[in-house]
Amino acid sequence: MESVYLVGFMGCGKSTVGKELARRMNKKFIDLDEEIVIQTGKSIPELFNEYGESGFRDFETQILRNVSGKKSVISTGGGIILRDENICCMKESGNIIYLETSIDVIFDRIHLDSNRPNAVNRTLEELTVLFQSREAQYKKADFKISTNNLTPIEIAMEIIDCLNYSKGGDSRNK
User: Fold this and answer.
1) Buried (b) or exposed (e) across 45-57, using 16+ Cβ within 10 A?
2) Is the per-residue pLDDT at 37 higher than 90?
3) I want to staple 8 with a disulfide (CB 3.0 to 4.6 A). Which of 12, 88, 146, 172 is the partner?
4) Which residue did the predictor score with more confidence, 32 or 11?
5) What pLDDT, on the 0 to 100 scale, is given for residue 114?
6) pLDDT band, residue 171 (cuts 50/70/90)
């Protein structure tokens, strides 16, 4: 049984869907951002302030490596895909699921969230530019699930269907 990695832009529902998916698959759920906070003893904004985004990404990569063999459902941070080594690590130990969500929905969810250093107080246009700069990396996932108009339970069931379908030998990417 492999790990399942949920990727996508911040605010797309990775943690919410991940908890539901883990419950339905009878796997442990790991929120990578929570693991970073636990292991460093600092909040994500504190890490960004103290080490910059690059330093934060170093912590993220190391902790991803630490949890990659645990055969769990793992929700990742929105920028995990910025490093190809992270994508390789996830592909080697499981399946990557891209939760595709419209930027308008994401903006409504996150633009005032002070726990998201790359989003707080940004305009829709600024977040759109950031989203577009990452989109090609998200599309390297094994599967893409469009989350628009779906509940977390429906998204979890779509993921399970994709994973079960792929075991039959077909790679149903996108």
Assistant:
1) eebbeeeeeeebb
2) yes
3) 12
4) 32
5) 67
6) very low
Q: Which are the contacts of 57, defined by CB distance < 8 A and separation ≥ 6?
A: 79, 82, 83
Q: Which residues, at least 6 apart from 138, have a Cβ–Cβ distance to it below 8 Å?
A: 7, 8, 9, 81, 98, 100, 144
- What is the Cα–Cα distance from 149 to 122, expressed in whole angstroms? 24
pTM beyond 0.85: the answer is: yes
pLDDT of residue 109: 83
Q: What share of the chain is helix, strand, coil (3-state, %, to 5)?
A: 55, 15, 30
Show the tokens assigned to 51.
């080490």
Contacts (Cβ under 8 Å, ≥6 apart) of 72: 3, 4, 22, 27, 28, 29, 30
Token output for 86? 């992270």
For the beta carbon of residue 123, count every other beta carbon within 10 angstroms. Answer: 10
Q: Which residues of 90-103 are buried (b: 16+ CB within 10 A; e: fewer)?
A: beebbbbbbbbbeb
For residues 108 and 91, the answer to whether their CB atoms sit within 8 Å is no
Asked if residue 96 lies in contact with residue 159, where contact means CB atoms within 8 angstroms, the answer is: no
Q: How far is CA 105 from the centre of its chain?
A: 16
Q: Are 60 and 86 in contact (CB under 8 A)?
A: yes
User: What residue type is 60 in one-letter code?
Assistant: E
